[in-house]
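Entry — protein

Goal — C-alpha cells:
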Amino acid sequence: MFVTVNDQRLFFDVVGEKLAIDGPRMREKPTLIVMHGGPGFDHSAMRPDFDGFAEIAQVLYFDHRGNGRSWPSPANTWTLAQWGDDVRGLCDVLGIEKPIVFGQSFGGMVAQSYATRHPGHARAVVFSSTAARMDLNASLDLFEQKGGADARAIAHRFWNEGTDEQFDDYMKNVMPLYNIKPRAGAEDARARAIMRREVYRHFSLPGGELLAMDFRKGLAGVKSPALVLGGSEDPITPPHLAREIANSLPNGARLEIFDRCGHGAFRDDPARVFPVIRAFVTEHSR
C-alpha cells in the first residue's frame, strides 16, 4: 500500500486490526510502528519477527523515504530530519494517534530524530541496537577481533569507498559478524529484500550524515517513555553506544543490554528479548 507523506509516496503494510473483538465491545489496540535498518534496506528485514505483536498491537511497517518499495525521491531529502518528520507525517495522514515507535539500527536513528523533533507525539519509543553518534573506530576494532585483519580491511573499505564490489564483500564477510549465530531463513530474507545502495552511499560514506550526527544533547528533550536495547556482542553499535542513549534521555529511560547477543538482540535470543519488548508495549498500551 502507498500513502503520500510530505509530498513523497511511501510504501507501508499493516499486520493486525486496530479494533479487536472483545466480547461485547471492540477493544482498541495501540499502533506499533516498526522501522527497519539500513539505510538502503526495506521493512522485510523486520518480518516475520514482529508480526507476532499483532496480538497486542496493530503492527505497521513502512519503507523509509528512498528505501525499499517507496517511490524514488531526491537525494537531498535523504536526511535524518526528513526521515524523522516522515514518521510524524505518516501518523497524521493515516490518523494514528500516540503510536509506539520501534526503531532498529538506522531505524533507531530515525526514531531519535522523530522523538527529538516531535517530543511527546509518541506514546512510547524503543531504540534497538542503534547509536546517538557513531564510533566506527571501535567497530573496526571489534570486526578485527571477530573476523581478523581481513574483516577490518573489508569494513574500512565499505565505510570509506563503497563500490558495488566492496558492498558485496561486506555483506558476505562482515555482516555475518553482526550476530553471534546464523539465522534460520537468512538466505531467503536477503533474497526478498530490496537494496538501495545509493541511499547507503549518500548517508554513510565520508561527508554523509552518519558520521556527523549526534543526538546526545537533543535526547534530553524526549518526552515519551523510552526503552533502549543493545547486545553485548554487537560490533556495529556496541553496548557503550546504547548506554550513551540511555544516559542522554530523561530519568526513567530503561536500558537492557543482553549478553551473548549481537546487532538486533531479538535475532540472537528471541526467547529473552521479545518478552521485554512485549511487556514494554503492553505497559504503554493503557
